Amino acid sequence: MQPEALQFLLESVAKGSISPENALEKLKNLSFEPVEDFAKIDRHRQLRTGFPEVIWGPGKTPEQIAQIMKVMSRETPVVMATRIEPAVAELLEEQIPGLIYYPVARICALKTAEPLIKYAGVISIITAGTADFPVAEEAAVTAQLCGFQVKRLWDVGVAGIHRLLSHRQVIDEADVLIVVAGMEGALPSVVAGMAECPIVAVPTSVGYGASFGGIAPLLTMLNSCAAGIGVVNIDNGFGAAILAGQILRVADKFVKNRDRAKYANKANCWDFMLRGRR
Asked: Where does the pLDDT of residue 74 fall: very low under 50, low under 70, confident under 90, or very high at 90 and above?
């Protein structure tokens, strides 16, 4: 946004010709910052969607990733880059002081402070097998960096269903469940039959030939007879975390707005009664 246009918008708000709410809507769609000639950072994505832009690592050089992260960190408290291999992470650590690497999740993060839990509710993440751990950990780290409380439960697949049943409280205490499974992908259906909260199912590429790199569990999850399941792409732990986070974030926003309205109504009633006594 050009400075003149921003000044005109602010003057319009000051004069009352445009409401602050309408001005905010205009600002949401205007801000991006170029990084040389290879990237444009979406500065207002968090304002529009609730979550800041995240860097997709594959296809970018370490130098490009480093430059993007440095520019983003000027205004973003937590900067994330996903699918970063260890060799690339080593190069990034040389260029960016304070960079944190989560090797299992393959996430690099740059943060000004330890992210606080910003939203109510719990995201519980369950895996069918240990081999699903990297995808699940991508979801867990993403959710934590975005400000959500996370609980983990690994290796409780349907081949040994007693393992899942012995941790029933994890299902009962969750507000959103992310269920990660490869092979035939049956675990989300089983969990959905036990849970009252939304389920985000993540098929993984773990399995033998006929699993077709995750197609078999994907189709199983899409065709689940249990209701209340949303399915993301194969190995997409990041997307699962964002979807689960959106559910909790909007619910948190709804509760806060409802409480504000409730207290405002009480205050208005009290003011009305006081005016009636005068």
From this structure: confident
